[in-house]
Specification:
Shape of chain A: globular
Radius of gyration of chain A: 24 Å
Number of domains of chain A: 2
Distance between the termini of chain A: 49 Å
CATH class of chain B: Mainly Alpha
Number of helices of chain B: 14
Oligomer: heterodimer
CATH superfamily of the largest domain in chain A: MetI-like
Structural class of chain A: mainly alpha
CATH architecture of the largest domain in chain A: Orthogonal Bundle
CATH topology of chain B: MetI-like fold
Strand content of chain B: under 5%
Distance between the termini of chain B: 34 Å
Number of strands of chain A: 1
Largest sheet of chain A: none
CATH topology of the largest domain in chain A: MetI-like fold
CATH architecture of chain B: Orthogonal Bundle
Helix content of chain A: over 70%
CATH class of the largest domain in chain A: Mainly Alpha
CATH superfamily of chain B: MetI-like
Number of helices of chain A: 13
Helix content of chain B: 55-70%
Structural class of chain B: mainly alpha
Chain lengths: 278, 320
């Protein structure tokens, strides 16, 4: 009896392990294929798809870089950095007010800010385009910055507020006795204490902004303004016959976030766990 | 003199947070009108760029816009009537529903089972490696994943058909994205590949939070792994499951990126979804009124999902 369950257990474990491993291959192989295709020539690409590249030249990567990917990358970095800083700052500022200040109609204010979580960006798309055209902001860097900040404030405020609510207020009160103002308390006491949730918020916002597609596609049409997701589809339509260059461009776009994930895995995972309310 | 320190309910659900009274925390507040300084930036940005366009969308949806930019006139519910008679709209809605159903199956229930399998492995190193590997597609953008699978499905150079030929399933090879019958399913399949690792990682975190004693007690009682999963894991990850259902459903009605990258809604509109159809009507045909009507449907669907979440959270709060 004991042996039978023992044998069954071993069989089951082997089966489960093989299944999990097979799934890992299904996940990894297409990504590997993408990276390797960036090294192939067009002729090789249309040959045996499982073959390895004959030589490791960086030619396609250089071509992709020179055909716009460098510019898309810079735009993506610029938009991601500015939008993330602005979003996290405005949200932390609001969260402080919501948790530490007596504000008239505070429940309405809270509902208005967090209620934004329930709204799909696509619903506001058409009026936003007309609004940005009227403001002269259509097809500018500001359009993306403003939209990314506006649509990420609810979620980010929600995260930071939930954390601030649980922080003890004694330290702030002690500081208040010493004569420190509210803004000072926010900068030098509350923000440092919120560091874990701020790191999570930053990571989640980077992930969102780096990969965002809908707004980036609708609100930018000029080459210098386009972020990587849009730039890649351009690369595809402009140089559609040179597939290896497209694969190289895709690899360049994927690497920064994958690196971010593996280098900051501990924070990254905690950030995701914090962010389930997405 | 210190204020009594109370812990306000902290929750992972946004909806729950809406319900928790702001004043409940034992934080002492100062009655000063200057408090507004803190929330005005957020309110202003949200008011102008989120709420105002949302209301304008409702207004747009009852208007007819002159395609040449001449102006607009009120036409009542005509756009919605047009919607009801538009076969592509219904096709798009059906595709969104298919998206939701498959994603629920794979990214909620499948991911929960998968996370339990991963966490059942004895080696912590393997568990960590598998969670990380499964997550990688979620870190790369849907655009990269979509483009990649455009090539994976490509009949000539793609690895899917090559794989099928290699294992003797030649008869199954086809132009996955080029046929009306398979296009949307190929897109949905890519989306599962891209997204399952994200929910698996979150379920793994939820499972790690279950006290090990419960599993030990169940094992001592001679309860096998299948029943342990059903009687311990499933009930104790219920909260995460609920959240994932909401996130998945809400996301399924906002699908856009992968459809645009892989098929643009084709062939013959067979893989349109609500947002891609909205995009085509709004920016392809400049029919802003009609596009706004589609947007209103998306608004109702996603808000509906969010309100169900709110209701469930409220009920749970009463129960517990």
């Amino acid at each position: 009896m004991v042996t039978r369950t023992g044998v069954l257990g071993v069989v089951a474990r082997t089966f489960v392990a093989s299944f999990l491993l097979a799934l890992a291959v299904v996940v990894i192989y297409p990504l590997l294929w993408m990276v390797l295709n960036g090294f192939k020539t067009n002729t090789e690409l249309f040959g045996n798809p499982f073959a390895l590249p004959l030589q490791l030249t960086w030619e396609n990567y250089a071509k992709a870089w020179n055909r716009g990917v460098s510019s898309y990358l810079m735009t993506s970095i610029l938009v991601t950095v500015t939008a993330t800083i602005a979003t996290v700052f405005i949200s932390a500022w609001a969260a402080y007010g919501l948790t530490r200040m007596q504000i008239p109609f505070s429940r309405t204010v809270l509902a208005l800010i967090l209620g934004g979580l329930m709204l799909a960006p696509a619903v506001a798309l058409i009026p936003l385009v007309r609004m940005f055209q009227a403001l002269g902001l259509y097809n500018t860097f500001w359009a993306l910055l403003i939209l990314y900040v506006a649509f990420r404030i609810p979620f980010t405020t929600f995260l930071i507020r939930a954390y601030m609510v649980d922080l003890p207020v004694e330290i702030e009160e002690a500081a208040a006795v010493d004569g420190a103002g509210k803004a000072r308390a926010f900068w030098s006491i509350v923000l440092p204490m919120c560091k874990p949730i701020l790191v999570s918020s930053v990571i989640l916002n980077i992930l969102f902004t780096w990969n965002e597609y809908l707004f980036a596609m609708v609100f930018t049409s000029g080459g210098d303004l386009q972020t990587l997701p849009i730039g890649l589809t351009n690369l595809m339509s402009k140089h559609g016959t040179e597939y290896p260059v497209v694969f190289a461009g895709m690899t360049i776009a994927a690497i920064p976030v994958i690196l971010l994930f593996f280098l900051t895995q501990k924070y990254f995972v905690r950030g995701l766990a914090d962010g389930v309310g997405k | 003199m210190s204020a009594p320190l109370q812990t306000a309910p902290s929750s992972t659900a946004a909806a729950a947070s809406l319900l928790s009274p702001t004043g409940a925390a034992g934080v002492r507040r100062q009655r000063r009108p200057r408090g507004w300084v803190w929330v005005v930036p957020a309110l202003l940005v949200l008011g102008v760029f989120v709420y105002l366009p949302l209301l304008q969308n409702l207004q747009y949806s009852v208007m007819k816009w002159d395609i040449y930019g001449g102006g607009s006139s009120f036409i009542g519910l005509a756009n919605y009537e047009k919607l009801a008679g538009d076969p592509v709209f219904w096709r798009a809605l059906a595709n969104n529903v298919a998206y939701a159903a498959v994603s629920l199956l794979c990214q909620v229930f499948g991911a929960l089972l998968l996370a339990a399998l991963v966490e059942s492995m004895r080696s912590e190193r393997w568990r960590r490696a598998l969670r990380a590997i499964y997550f990688v597609p979620s870190a790369i953008s849907l655009t990269v994943a979509g483009l990649l699978f455009y090539f994976v499905y490509e009949p000539e150079l793609g690895i899917l058909n090559a794989f099928l030929r290699g294992v003797g399933l030649e008869s199954l090879t086809q132009a996955w994205l080029g046929q009306e019958g398979t296009a949307i399913w190929a897109v949905i399949a890519m989306s599962q590949w891209q997204g399952f690792g994200y929910s698996t990682l979150l379920f793994a975190i939820a499972i790690q939070r279950i006290p090990q004693d419960l599993y030990d007690a169940a094992s001592l009682d001679g309860i096998g792994p299948v029943r342990r999963f059903l009687q311990v894991t499933v009930p104790l990850t219920r909260e995460m499951t609920g959240l994932m259902i909401i996130v998945t459903l809400s996301g399924a009605f906002q699908v856009f990126n992968e459809v645009m990258v892989m098929t643009s809604g084709g062939p013959n509109n067979s893989s349109q979804v609500l947002v891609s159809w909205l995009y085509r009507m709004g920016f392809g045909r400049n029919d802003f009124g009609y596009a706004a009507a589609i947007a209103t449907v998306i608004f109702v669907l996603t808000l509906g999902v969010a309100l169900v979440q709110l209701a469930i959270t409220r009920k749970r709060r009463v129960e517990w």
